[in-house]
Amino acid sequence: QIVDSVFTRSRTSSSVLTTFCLRCLLAFRDPMAMERANLLNMAKLSIKGLIESALSFGRTLDSDYPPLQQFFVVMEHCLKHGLKVKKTFLGYNKSLWGPLEMVEKLCPEAGEIAASVRDLPGLKTPLGRARAWLRLALMQKRLADYLRVLITRKDILSDFYESSAVMLEEEGAVIVGLLVGLNVIDANLCVKGEDLDTQVGVIDFSMYLKNDIDDYRSEERRISGVPSVPIKLHASFLCLSSTVQGLQGRVDSLEKSNSRLIEELAIAKNNIIKLQEENHQLRSENSLILMKVTQGDVNCELDTYKQSRQGLDEMYNEARRQLKEECQLRQDVENELVVQVNMKQEMELAMKLLEKDIHEKQDTLIGLRQQLDEVKAINVEMYQKMQVSSLPERIPLNYMSELLSVFFRFQLETDLKIEREWRQTLQNDLERERETVSQLKAEAQQINALKKEFHRLQDENTQLKGICEEQEQALEELGCKLSESKLKIEDIKEANKALQGGQVWLKDKDATHCKLCEKEFSISRRKHHCRNCGEIFCNACSDNELPLPASPKPVRVCDTCHALLLQRCSSNTA
Fold it and tell me: What is the pTM of this model?
């Protein structure tokens, strides 16, 4: 402060040599502090000159505006101050794109401009990307916010800057605070076609020295014109007296016109009040008519839904009854089929046993025939022996031949009788088997008919299930439509309550503090209306959006209204 005051006195007394000596002495003691002070002063001059010229310019700034170009040059020098030199394969590199690129990680909102900078085709160097980033952040009016987030992280900046750099000292915070004033400026900068890699960033001091020289010359003219002041004052007095008289007449006429305008204003206010009352009454009538029409539609839809539901319930019960009957019939058919299959298996087993018995009897018959042949052979042998025998008491040949004939006839009759009995037995068994086979064929045909009937019943069951599912889906859709109608009625009731309650829309000039957090509004902390309650809040307390009955699109609401509306919506949904 002492050095700045001495510098100011030396400039007013035109003692340039003394000022130069003092600044040289300060530079020899702490050269980095001197650089920071110079950069801070240049930033103040550049930002102040840019804001004043932009406000007098009165329209959107472009890239060719000289004060804006000088501002970017000064910001580039401030960001480059104390930047560490990093060693790479190609040599030593000193670029400010590294710390600016870290803003994307600290503030996710900066990711959009960082991605845009990386996608620009004409940028090949990190310095060009940093210059493009500064221009895009200024157009977005978030340059001060991004740099404020960056300077708060000293641990990250220490990797890129020396300990005595501007970004790590108090001067950096002051510069970031000055950047907040640039939010009033609208800039439209074309970054895509501009050559930002090869620009030379040189500060033009003539723009700021011109103002000092003009002030010094005007001071000299003022001092030289002091002796002629009384004469000029007398002439000015005469001129002013005539002007006062003319103005007095104009004041009288203006007062008359003002009184007339006040009366017209009172009449207009009365007309506005009447029109507002009529508008309020018409809105109330319109809301009531809308509610009646909506209620009628809802009642009609509800009656239709009840009738449809009753008819669908009857159809559903009938389908369930038919399904139950078909299931019972299917169960009976399946049980009968199981019984028939068991009977068929038993008959097959009996057939096998009969066949086995017939084979055993055939084997027995063959064995008896063999025995009969053996007996015959023995009788023949005995007969031959008897003929050869020389017994004294020989039986007469005729008697013997009769006996043999009788014996053979008796034996043949016995064999014939046995054969007939076996034949009759086999014929009876064959008849029984034929009857069993015919009975099994009839049962097989009945089983096939039952299978066809079972498949038909299965198809009908599937169709009935499909009809039931379609009816249940229709019932669900009707329930959804009914719930939507109820929600619409609730929204209309809320809108009617809001219209009848007459919520007050608070004016901007009446609010100086946020109603929720009670923080004072400023350039950085702006005012935002809650579209539900009409009060004014800061951005942090009203950073919510919900659709209201009066507006189909989501609008800004405060935290209190947001919680209340969410609770109401959840209760309606439940």
Answer: 0.37
